[in-house]
Amino acid sequence: MRQALSGILSKSASSLKTIMILAFAMTFVVAGAASSYAARSAAIVIDAKTGKVLYSSDADGRRYPASLTKMMTLYLTFEAMAKGKIARNSPVVFSARAAAEPPTKLGVRPGGAVTVETAILSMVTKSANDSATALGELLGGNEANFARMMTAKARALGMKSTVFRNANGLPDPGQFTTARDMAMLGIALREHYPQYYGYFSQRSFLYGRKRINGHNRLLGRIKGVDGIKTGYTRASGYNLVSSVSDGDRRIVAVVMGGNSGGSRDNQMAGLINAYMPKASSRGGGVLIAKAGGGNPITALAKVFLPKHDAPTPDEKPGNDAVAALVEENAPIVEETTPVVQTRKVKTVAVATVDDIATARVAAAYAEPEAIDPVNTASVPSGWAIQVASSPKRSEAQAFLDKTTKQAPAVLADASGFTVAFDKDGVTYYRARFGGFGSKNAAWKACSALKKKKIECYAVQQ
Known about the structure:
The chain has three domains: 2-36; 41-278, DD-peptidase/beta-lactamase superfamily (Beta-lactamase, 3-Layer(aba) Sandwich); 296-333 and 379-460, Sporulation related repeat (Alpha-Beta Plaits), CATH 3.30.70. Helix content is 37%, strand content 20%. It contains 14 helices and 15 strands. The chain has helices at residues 2-35, 69-82, 96-99, 116-124, 129-140, 143-156, 179-192, 261-275, 296-300, 319-328, 355-364, 368-371, 393-406, 439-451, and strands spanning 42-47, 53-57, 91-93, 113-115, 204-207, 210-213, 225-233, 237-246, 249-258, 340-342, 374-376, 383-390, 415-423, 426-436, 457-460. Helix 4 (116-124) packs across helix 5 and helix 5 crosses helix 6. It starts with a helix and ends with a strand. The model is unreliable at 8-13, 21-36 and 293-379 (pLDDT under 50).
């Protein structure tokens, strides 16, 4: 009996030992898989005027983006602002999910709200995770839908090796990118939304009575650095995307997988010093095609002011004339509250790490309207400037984008949007910039545009 019991115990101990060994081995396997993207550093330097790669080290190796993810969240935020769907002072309500995100965070309670601009500033300085989630929920209805929008936009911008799963970059094994893709996104942010790019150079901002300082230590330390974003998780290592200008030269550099914030910053400084002199002082054409339509230059050739639409007067119309123009050309919109309203987004399976699932996500949101699921319930109130109208929404939007690039200072505080109207059985789309607080402010801006040979007129919404 004793012998039998001893044998059983011996076998049990042996089995337990085997199980423990297997479990220990599996721990290493899982840990190895989780850290494989961060096993080596990656870097790239691109001439932001010509697109030439000046330096590359494992630039196409998969890495975890960490808070670099917020660059895409901000891209989609800027896109919504430029289209008039949200404004700088629009409220961003923090859900219980957003408020519960781990630090770093702004610390807004569930049900509380901040303005879009405050959310932006908290992301570019403090890298606030709760603000990123709240913006994602505002723009996408929920964070899962927003992550699909992010991935679709990445694909439309040419970022072929990136998948997003959340708005803030908190750890998720299915969220990955490359140094090359992050450089492309950095270039796209500046090229497509120059009117908002200045946010990335913000080193601190006041939140109530508290001053919040930023994480990007290269701002003010390295000449010409004007952003863009830092990032860190244990799995990703220390990441940084920098945009740098020196006279007529401009580069975007990316460092991922640094061992510490200091070593990452030093590596970035070395790349800037080494490759900025090699950047071209010429060039300056569009490097990243804007998502959501064909060639914008081709589209602009077709934009026109229809004969039956409101005229472009040389003299300022009086109040009666303005009222008549508004009455005759009243935009077909449904006034609701609140100003910004989201609509349901087509549901697709969540992307997996493999390329097949990534392709499915891109295909599901290939159409411009699917990529952009935020619906505007009403146009901005106050005074607006109309610069064109077209039978195609995409052409009207292209004209807004072109005008913004031609006069970024004039339109710094304005929001572009399109408004549909019917004339003689044909639907046209007005291209307008809203957000002007008075008639004089609108006409002053319009006069400045006319000096740049951009035709326009002011109208009260």
